[in-house]
Amino acid sequence: MKTNSLLGLAIACALLASCKQSEMKTEESVATSTTEESLSPAEEISGNAKQDKKTSNNLSSSAAVEKNDGKHKFVRTADIRFKVKDVAKSTNSVEDVVSQAGGFVVSTELKSDVNKTEESKMSEDSIVKTTQFTVYNDMIIRVPNTNLDAALKTISKEVGYLDYRIIKAEDVALQLKSNQLAQKRLARHQQRVEDAVDSKGKKLNQINDTENDLLDKQATSDSALLDNLALEDKVAYSTVALKLYQDETVRREVLANFENAAFRTPFGTRLLDSLKTGWYILEGIITFALNFWPFLIAGLGVYLGLKKYGKRRQTAV
Predict the structure, then answer these.
(1) Are 118 and 255 in contact (CB under 8 A)?
(2) Domain that residue 111 falls in
(3) Do 192 and 229 sit in the same domain of this protein?
(4) What is the reported pLDDT for 124?
């Protein structure tokens, strides 16, 4: 009987212990779930911030996507200005993107504008020249219409800060059709006039007027053809104007201070140079005077002759 009581007490203790452990596990599970749920909004905000930053620097747009519906013909242009870390490196990257997209660079103007320059004394014989300048590049590129969106997305990798992005898509399908119809009308008119001249025959002045009219119509037809070719080229290749710039750069360089007295020629050297210069001048004068030696001899002869003649005259008196 006593043994049964002890056994029952042991079983009851074991059941109580197992229930307590189960409750602790349940509380830990709830706490873990609560912690995970509380971290989820923060992670979502961080993810949204990164996505917003990525989106703000994205140069792509639905206006840059080609839609081949057979009805519309779009001339796409873009004007974009953005800041980069290094204009020269970004320029090379953009040119590589354009080349890979099957396009070409129309113009590129890589320049530096000096904003400020100042010099400060570093030591007795040297100065520090500080130059503040800004590097920028204005580019015009042309990219196949079908590759415009992909090219802009790749160029977006170079964007540090986007100032503006303007993308336009102008539908010129009706204009192309209008030019084609104008060409057909002019061609039919030209053919009718030519047939009339050949079949009926007219006076010379009337023929000349007709020929001039034909030339005018042909010029108009050629103009419509050229307009169509230009529009088709603009449809096939989108034009993008890019303006790249970077933060102001400061450059410092150490230069020699040539105005310092330490760079003056020593006095002894200058004195010796003066003596040499004076001697060279004297040599020049003597050399120049020797060029007139015949006149000197003639003058000396005349002087001696006059002197001798004077002495004889005094003796005679």
Answers:
(1) no
(2) 59-259
(3) yes
(4) 73
